[in-house]
Amino acid sequence: MLFLFEHKSFLPTQPVHLQLLDYFLQIWEDDIKNKRPLSFIIPVVVYHGQRNWEQKSFWDYFPGVPEKWRAFVPSFDYILTDLSRIPQQLIQAKRDTEYLRNLFLALKFAHDKGLLKENWSEILTFGTASYEQDRERILLQTLTLYAVNLYDMPPTEVQQLNKSIPKPERNWINEIPEIFGERWKKRGLREGRAEGRAEKERAFTIKTIKKFPEWNDSEVAEFVGVSIEFVQQVRKEIGYIQRKSAPSASIWLGRPLSTGSDKVVLNERCSQSFGNHANQSRASLPCQRAGSNPL
After folding, report:
1. Considering the entire predicted model, what is its pTM?
2. Digit-coded pLDDT (tens) for 262-276
3. Helix axes 134-150, 193-211, angle to 10 degrees
4. Model confidence over 224-274: pLDDT tens digits?
5. Domain span at 67
6. Based on the structure, what is the number of domains in the chain?
7. Per the domain annotation, does 232 fall within a domain?
8. Residues paired with residue 251 on neighbouring β-strands, in sequence order
């Protein structure tokens, strides 16, 4: 069983079923290529826009078609998690799923900079156990970049906000090159500031490529803050080829692409639910394929 997460910050102009169906086909094609049984997929749409989301069936987008032809239209449903309808207190109560809880808080406050800053410590505090692996640290940095890029916050503003969060989180946020580029330059090699930053960017690029092998060059470049050509050169130097497989579970966040979504694949180990709330909104953690190894 796979959970497929699609992030939406605004109402789509076309039925979301079309986008979900495209993801289904990519996953099933990968199943066939690797001689696996077809995956059972549960799609979850995480929405935090300002307008109401009216959940419809795919059949509703075929007005005028006789009911007797309904059998020829793909039929599947999706779970809608409308964060605007889930109380903040309910999200904060999910202490057993810290990363998802903090992510949902960031998404819920994405349209209000005042609330985002007011809850900065709540959003970026995870606990000591979350930093035992590089993967968790990368997830923290990803969430921080999302929050910062929403309002193009300067380093001085981020540093002031970070005074309210614990030292482990603060130290790892300070290592993000997109926010503290000048700090990275000052730590550079003796040959020059630019060379020093390049070495840091190269090391961070290599770590990202290895931790998220399914990301393409464009996704790695956007996350690290370098050019696509730089990522391609690093791949060539280390001989690390992108893993060409469909994501087992994904959630999309960040600045809009041409499709209306950005990709950051977040694989988690378990599934939790916020229960049924307004318009059957629910939120679940993506689960990995049975028997697979986490990153």
Report:
1. 0.55
2. 333 333 333 333 333
3. 110
4. 888 888 889 898 888 765 554 444 333 333 333 333 333 333 333 333 333
5. 1-97+247-295
6. 1
7. no
8. 264
